[in-house]
Amino acid sequence: MKVDGGCHCGHLTYEAEIDESIVTVCHCTDCQNLAGTPFRVTAHSFEGSFTLLTGKPKEYVKTGGSGNPRIQAFCAECGSQIYSTSVGEGPKVYNLRVGTIRQRDSLVPTRQIWARSAHHWIDNLSSVPMYQEGPPQPR
Amino acid sequence: MKIDGACHCGDLTYEAELNLEQVLVCHCTDCQAMSATAFRVVARSKPDTLTLLTGNPSTYSKIGTSGAERVLSFCPRCGTNVFSTTAGDGPKVHSIRTGSIRQRAELVPVAQMWTRSGQPWVDSLSSIPKLEEAYGPPGGITTYDR
Ligand SMILES: [Zn+2]
Ligand SMILES: [Zn+2]
Ligand SMILES: [Zn+2]
Ligand SMILES: [Zn+2]
Description:
Chain A is mainly beta. Chain A has one helix and nine strands. In chain B, strands 1, 2, 3, 4, 5, 6, 7, 8 and 9 form a nine-stranded mixed beta sheet that branches. The longest helix of chain B is centred in the first third of the chain and has 7 residues, at 29-35. One zinc ion binds at residues 26, 28, 30-31, 40, 114 of chain A.
């Protein structure tokens, strides 16, 4: 599936071809911390299909659970995190953060990983009171 | 509740006193785009209780739906989103991104906002297959890394 996306301020834009049969919810503590939220959702691009159209992301390299260094890219202007990928040369798979994908409403996660660090309330979200918009307070 | 937190690289550290009645899930499209995930969870501080202990965050200003300016802070080195607050003078309530709070596992949301833009699958997360850790998926991606 062809997708496009960008950061909140519009500085970074990209397009890619993703495999929509694998969309991953990750509950790992690194995703929680970096995204600032309970879990991250990631769609995986086909090798060599990712193109950055505008802007230049800031890159942060962290060491994954596997011991491999991973590039985490974000917008230096607005802080939106857009992808992670491997370090080094050659065609790459990009793990796109779905919140930045314009077509995100049509992506449904197919698996959850690192469930052992998932928040205990996460399966019962429907029991938390819902408001279509507000409550009237800043977010 | 007294909490402390940090970004992933450790440059930014802070402490604050939380209002536990104000732990909120936000499904708005701005939170989706900036946290780059399905929704954000914020815990609101009691006024003027947030103290930045180390580091110097980058800030980004956006205009909320209310028309009010919000100042969002993140780490310039690792990109971790840490908190937002109002622009200008006056007592500051900080909306702290719970993923950066060390005690986050103890925080349970009391309400969800902007559910009209919520992702349709978030209520049925329990029906999506779970793995305690990670695995190498089929389909050509041989190693999955976060
Ligand atoms: Zn941006
Ligand atoms: Zn993760
Ligand atoms: Zn940092
Ligand atoms: Zn929001």
